[in-house]
Design goal:
About 45% of the residues lie in helices and about 10% in strands. By secondary structure, it is of the alpha/beta class. The chain is globular, with a radius of gyration of 21 Å. The structure holds zinc ion (2 copies). One zinc ion binds next to loops. The site of one zinc ion has 4 residues, from loops. GO terms for molecular function: phosphoric ester hydrolase activity; zinc ion binding.
């Protein structure tokens, strides 16, 4: 449902029903399903009760079957090759900010996709509508991630969670988090989330100031446009105005990846800007910006757009193993 972009409340209904069902003994469930009592349980409605009954009978629930029939639109060869070349994702959110799921669940879904790394980039303090993390909460999150990574390492797998942040670019181009804390993070995605309508001159200065900040790795959804109505944001939103040549030249010069944001409601930057950034020699990061586990799969949309703009795997930073990427950025000169 998440991959299909269904509203969060519907996903929640199924998660809630799963939690209720998971707490009951099997025999009790079978009895309730027989006498039509499932609907009386907390969090179980008509649709979820039917899915539970079908599952108890050993069938794939009709609801799931319908989703699966329509979910996997076939990708063309070049797009699947680029998607297969991705080793990780540099932009995702957990329920610590405005995501819907715990860090563990996001990590489990990323591993299931075959990723070697997932950057956890919850929002910064000023984005209060998204429950942005204060410096103290971010420090606490770093401890949690360290513990989870120790668990992954003990299992012997290659997967790890990269520490990170999606930090707000303030109106003056400064970043909305303590520099010392940004320094400690594996991945800093910098994004504009406020005053998106400022004049092009000021917006260009603002973005370039952030790009020149040595802590920044990725420029998130650079135009801020919203192309799909509905969801939590409500309406559509036009692109912010800025001098794209100056902004992309700064990205190239300072080694900041231009994000190809894969969310169906963003698809940012638009293709004319993607082509420009490519011609100017920029690197890219194809990110899901997932706010739920199933949305991690949205990278395929970004891959399709990259292919349409002639961008190959060699220009995409998250086709490289994390250590290699990190080492190259920190190399002197
Ligand atoms: Zn954002
Ligand atoms: Zn985000």
């Amino acid at each position: 449902m998440e991959r299909a972009g269904e509203p969060t409340y519907r996903v929640r209904a199924f998660r809630g029903a799963a939690a209720t069902v998971g707490g009951l003994p099997h025999d009790e469930l079978v009895r309730l399903a027989r006498n039509g009592g499932l609907g009386d349980l907390k969090g179980i409605g008509k649709v979820t009760a039917l899915a539970v009954t079908e599952a108890l009978n050993g069938d794939v629930p009709t609801y799931l079957r319908r989703l699966e029939d329509t979910a996997d639109v076939d990708l063309d060869e070049a797009t699947s090759a680029l998607r297969a070349a991705l080793r990780g994702d540099l932009h995702s959110h957990s329920d610590w900010s405005d995501g819907g799921s715990p860090i563990e669940e996001m990590a489990a879904a990323a591993r299931a996709l075959g990723h070697e790394y997932l950057a956890l980039t919850d929002h910064s303090p000023r984005l209060t509508v998204a429950n942005g993390l204060s410096a103290d909460r971010l420090r606490a999150q770093l401890d949690v991630v360290e513990e989870l990574n120790a668990g992954f390492a003990a299992e012997g797998g290659a997967f790890r969670i990269l520490t990170g942040i999606e930090v707000d670019i303030n109106a003056d181009g400064s970043l909305d988090q303590e520099p010392g804390l940004l320094e400690r993070l594996d991945v800093v995605v910098a994004s504009v989330h406020s005053q998106l309508k400022m004049g092009a001159g000021d917006m260009t200065r603002r973005m370039v100031t952030a790009i020149a900040n040595p802590h920044v790795d990725v420029l998130g959804h650079c135009t801020g446009r919203i192309v799909q109505a509905g969801g939590k944001r409500g309406g559509l939103r036009p692109e912010s105005a800025f001098d794209a040549e100056i902004v992309f030249e700064a990205c190239r010069r300072f080694g900041v990846a231009v994000e190809i944001n894969s969310r169906p409601d963003r698809l940012d930057p638009p293709k004319r800007l993607l082509r420009l950034a490519y011609e100017m020699g920029c690197s890219f990061s194809i990110d899901s910006d997932a706010h739920a586990p199933g949305q991690l799969d949205w990278q395929r949309f970004g891959c399709a757009r990259a292919v349409q703009c002639g961008i190959g795997a060699d220009r995409v930073v998250n086709t490289r193993p994390w250590d290699e990427r990190h080492a190259s950025r920190d190399a002197p000169g």
